[in-house]
Amino acid sequence: MAVIALPGRRAVDIPIAVIGLAVLVAAAMLLPAAYLVMRVLGEGSAAWDTLSATSTTDAVVRTSLLASAVTGGAIAIAVPAAWLTVRTDLPLRPVWAVVLALPLAFPSYVGAFAFVAALGPRGMLQDLLSPLGVERLPEIYGFWGAWLALTLFTFPYVLLPVRAALRGMDRSLEEAARGLGKGSLSTFVRVTLPQLRPAIAAGGVLVALYTLSDFGAVSILRFDSLTRVIYLQYTASLDRGAAATLALILVAMALLVVAVEGVTRGKARYHASVSHRPPEPVALGAWRWPAVAFCGLVALVALVLPASVITFWLVRGLGEGESLAVVREATLNSAYVSSLAALAAVAAALPVAILAVRYRGPLSSALEKVTYSGFALPGIVIALALVFFFANYVTFLYQTMALLVFAYVVRFLPQALGSTRSSLLQVNANTEEAARGLGYGPARVFARVTAPQMLPGLSAGAALVFLTVMKELPATLILSPIGFNTLATEIWSATTASYFARAALPALILVAVSAIPMMLLVLRERRVS
Amino acid sequence: MRPRVAVLAAALVLTALVAASTACSSGGKDSLIVYSGRSEDLVQPLIDQFEEDTGIDVQVKYGETAEMAATILEEGSNSPADVYYGQDAGALGYLAQEGRLAELPQGLLDRIDSRFRARDGRWIGLSGRARVVAYNVENVDPATLPSSILDFTDEEWDGRIGWAPTNGSFQAFVTALRLIEGEDAARAWLEAIKANGAKDYPNNTAALEAAANGEVDVVFVNHYYLYPALAEQGDGFGARNHYTGPGDAGSLVNVAGAGILDSADNRENAERFLEHMLSEDAQQYFADETFEYPLIEGIETHPDLLPLSELEPPDIDLSDISDLNGTLDLLRETGVLP
């Protein structure tokens, strides 16, 4: 049997250590929300005025529309791309697998800026088309521009878990469907797609929450989402109370998104049966070239285009005699702190995931959901919340590397949690029980039986956190030890002074370094299969 | 992951964290901590010079002007910062108003024109920046550009204007407009420019790029963004600066400035630092390297800039424009800001 629904365990079985750790992690994740509640309470009735203002309602509606549209767009790109790169005889399959994961490496503030430079009304594309008499391209700004940029830079959040699910899925059900005379499409829609639902939902949640939290793309593409209003409260009036009120709306929206995901995910759990067989690739036949064109188009717009624009900035600057600044230290710093954060995030995700998957109940489900509360918040909110707690109450850690890594975990834990959770779902609990039956203790069973099977999921989670920490800016600027510069801060520093060429090299290095774990992941997949 | 590997990894992470956190202790007699809203590219050479001259170890935290100010507010009296160095008078005024900046010595304040420092002596300008109209060289003949910012309400500019309304310098300009022309005229101006289809850009850099590639024909920005663009992109860069006429709100000169925190541990070093920033060498650096206006007497403005004497900025005390609340209300009421 491929789909096994396990009855919930009795509460007695839950190891105290797992609960303790999970509660600790959830408490840490709630720090930003706690800070926001404190600030809002300090506001009194002014908070109510901010909440009930029509401008707030409008911003909430706009933001919800954007988040839904981006999530839909990301799923529409990611599911076919995942299927093509896992299940078919698509030419150059492994290359596409890597290439299509890479757009996630672009910081949205760089990617959106490159988009405007290339596709803006008088951008580079217009320049190329001007011999044909094209004076101006249609406006890229506003809802659709923000939608396009965010969709193209976030769809890998869905692609990665769906690919993992497709690889781990047992084929016997699909074969049975075929045997019953169903066609390929019908089999995909009625058998494959339902099994992919948890993976699509897990990735979709990340896309939706990331969109809620994004400030870079929406500000450059001129879309007034909630983060832009929040940012204005901080920067223009330094009104922390009003900013907190609006930010709390984002927390509520995040919890709503997670609740919707919980419903979509459903109660069933999926794991492969013991007799897992490697899948036969589907022959695309005449669809081969349209399929290549689809992957090529996505890669062209989401990867080649922004990378070319940045390279162009670099070359143009060098041509005018700009010298290449050395960014070795920033590169090492970025890689170092991102690795630490990736390890720490996976470690923090483990107890929450174990509790949520193996010991289902209201407590474990609530703990899991609250860990998502911070992911929809813009980085500045999380950073200032941690400044408040640590500068005033945990002074010895303030402006240390430890706090910086902690902040990254608070910001990005959900990215590690999703894949940790789904990899645990694919571990058959029967194998754990067999080991228990042989007299092994729970810790030993976990280390010897569970963890090795989870390794692909754990490393996927770590890779995601690594890559988002590489490009994280607001928390890095505010919380890092003084003098600690990263590639993201170098890019920021150069662009605020209008030096594009100086920003270009760190931006290219950032994308290249982020690509490394992605490539390792895909190469590893190939070795396994 | 075998248990040993897991334990090893955990131990590694812990050691790295502890090592990292003990490595950077702050404070000490010969030290100074600066929170800078100005970027490292522009400011660090001056700081290196100060360290060399005085032997004081300066640690600088770089970030956005408003975010650094918000950080200081959250840190409260535990703030490690001694000096706050911001891009515009607005954030400085806000910190002063919240009681977070201490009074500066009179001798220091007297070095510059009283227009460019706080009336209560809690912050001081270090370099000046003028508002300009940057225009696209292909589509606009500079001779036809209006000498007052007020004239951009004419329908001839419909669809051709860009601005960065979230930017602090822009907001300071609107405050100046309110003070010079009155509340109603400022409101009418904002409404008319918006009716002219003004396009929002996230910052001055993006606005200037848009003027250069002809996405719009004119943008309202600060003067100095042009020069790095010229350096990187050559004389072919498609935008140049236009100064509106004498006394016009469109020619407002704002400052980047600094203040010393009320909670500063190294007050004496902080004062020396501000003295250094107002020294002839440092002011010359601003003139030559960042293309800004020096604020002390006797320093030559960069030859590419219109000197302050010819620019004749409006006679406005920057202390009066550091309060942004009325301006923000106006910007929201007119729908310029969300």
What this model shows, in words?
The complex is a heterodimer of chains A (529) and B (338). Chain A is an all-alpha fold and 529 residues long. Helix content of chain A is 74%, strand content 0%. Chain A has helices at residues 16-29, 31-43, 45-52, 54-87, 93-99, 108-119, 124-129, 143-154, 156-168, 172-179, 184-213, 216-220, 226-235, 240-265, 288-319, 328-358, 362-370, 379-393, 401-425, 429-437, 442-471, 474-479, 487-496, 500-528. In chain A, helix 11 packs antiparallel against helix 19 (401-425) and helix 16 packs across helix 21. The two termini of chain A are 22 Å apart. The model of chain A is unreliable at 1-12 (pLDDT under 50). Chain B has 338 residues and is of the alpha/beta class. In chain B, 42% of the residues lie in helices and 16% in strands. Chain B is built from 14 helices and 10 strands. In chain B, strands 1, 2, 3, 4, 5, 6, 7, 8, 9 and 10 form a 10-stranded mixed β-sheet that branches. In chain B, helix 3 packs parallel to helix 4 and helix 6 (168-181) crosses helix 7 (183-195). Chain B is globular and about 60 Å long. The termini of chain B are far apart. The relative contact order of chain B is 0.18. The model of chain B is unreliable at 21-27 (pLDDT under 50). Classes of the chains: A mainly alpha (529), B alpha/beta (338). Chains A and B meet through helix 4, helix 6, helix 13, helix 15 and helix 16 of A and helix 1, helix 2, strand 2, helix 3 and helix 4 of B.
Helices and strands, with pairings:
The complex is a heterodimer of chains A (529) and B (338).
Chain A: H1 16-29, H2 31-43, H3 45-52, H4 54-87, H5 93-99, H6 108-119, H7 124-129, H8 143-154, H9 156-168, H10 172-179, H11 184-213, H12 216-220, H13 226-235, H14 240-265, H15 288-319, H16 328-358, H17 362-370, H18 379-393, H19 401-425, H20 429-437, H21 442-471, H22 474-479, H23 487-496, H24 500-528
Helix pairs in contact in A: 1-16, 1-17, 2-14, 2-18, 3-14, 4-5, 4-8, 4-9, 4-11, 6-8, 6-15, 9-11, 10-11, 11-14, 11-19, 13-14, 15-24, 16-17, 16-19, 16-21, 16-23, 16-24, 18-19, 19-21, 20-21, 21-24, 23-24
Chain B: H1 3-23, E1 31-36, H2 40-54, E2 57-62, H3 65-75, E3 83-86, H4 89-97, E4 101-102, H5 106-109, E5 124-136, E6 161-163, H6 168-181, H7 183-195, E7 199-200, H8 204-212, E8 218-222, H9 226-233, E9 239-242, E10 253-261, H10 267-277, H11 280-289, H12 308-311, H13 318-321, H14 325-333
Parallel strand pairs in B: 1-2, 1-3, 6-7, 6-8
Antiparallel strand pairs in B: 3-10, 4-10, 5-8, 5-9, 5-10
